[in-house]
Amino acid sequence: MASSKVIINFSSESDMQGILREIRRRNITGLQWIASEAWATATLLWEKFEDLLTGTLGFAIRRADMIPGLEEHLTSLRPSDIHKSAFLAEFWEEMFNCRLNGSVNSHSHGVDNYLDRLPCKGTESLDDVYSPYSDVTQLRVSYNVYKAVYLVAHALQDMSDCEGGKGPFSNGTCADPKHFKPWQLIHYMRRANFSALGEEVNFDQNGDPIAYYDLVNWQRSPDGSLHLVKVGFYDASSPAGYSLVINDSVIQWPVGKQ
């Protein structure tokens, strides 16, 4: 890549919108953005600032290929399933521009008046629209939640299987699975070692997960949408000097930079 202005940015997605608006107002171009995980996969930024963000490189939370049954569950939701959840009700009403019967929502994120909306018909389907909510092609934060649930489950299982005299606490004692303390559960969580969707999940001596990030490149798909191309990764468990791997032959640089 030719010499260019490289900007490493740790802002949130909302803060980036303000920054990019000002950059556009000042007609600044040719920037090479390096995104933190806070906005490395923020597709909404692409919709507004594609011209400024093509070629961005970002360190993103590791992506999962698939969580079995998740897409089917998300797209099967209907108004009767979600009207009791304030979050899902608000999402549904904003997505389909309607009002749910008995909804606790009372405002609109758009320019329209919420109370002027027509009632939801009950036939709306997430199969008919695109939404980041039901997009399972970029499971990153969701994958971390998935692993966290399994981590707690494995820790509780290990606690239940503990044999008196062979436990991890003083004098080989075990925690009582029905009346354990939070610090006891954390102890078992730090010792957990299991596989989730083909990935080995383990922790360092401090109980922290091993740092792993996908290096993604923001490229334009033929239909104009954002295509997050994995062009490398960072793996803290690799030997010194091999933690960061980059395949620069597949990177698309900002317009005008080669």
What's the layout of helices and strands?
Layout: E1 5-9, H1 13-25, E2 31-35, H2 43-53, E3 57-61, H3 70-75, H4 79-82, H5 86-96, H6 141-161, H7 182-191, E4 194-196, E5 199-201, E6 212-220, E7 226-235, E8 244-246
Parallel strand pairs: 1-2, 2-3
Antiparallel strand pairs: 3-6, 4-5, 6-7, 7-8
Helix pairs in contact: 6-7
Subcellular location: Membrane
Keywords: Membrane, Receptor, Transmembrane, Transmembrane helix
GO molecular function: G protein-coupled receptor activity
Structure, described:
The protein is an alpha/beta fold. Helices cover about 30% and strands about 15% of the residues. It is built from seven helices and eight strands; from the N terminus they run E-H-E-H-E-H-H-H-H-H-E-E-E-E-E. It has a six-stranded mixed β-sheet, with helices on one face. Helix 6 packs across helix 7. The relative contact order is 0.15. The model has no long low-confidence stretch (mean pLDDT about 85).
Supply the key terms.
alpha/beta, 258 residues, six-stranded mixed sheet, transmembrane, membrane
Q: Give the neighbour order of strands across the main sheet.
A: 1-2-3-6-7-8
**How can the largest sheet be summarized?**
6 strands, mixed
Beta content: 15-25%
How many helices? The count is 7
Taking Cα atoms only, what radius of gyration do you get, to the nearest Å?
23 Å
GO molecular function, one term: G protein-coupled receptor activity
Main location: membrane
Pfam families: ANF_receptor (PF01094)
Subcellular location: Membrane
Question: What's the quick description here?
Answer:
One of its GO terms (molecular function) is G protein-coupled receptor activity. This protein is an alpha/beta fold and 258 residues long.
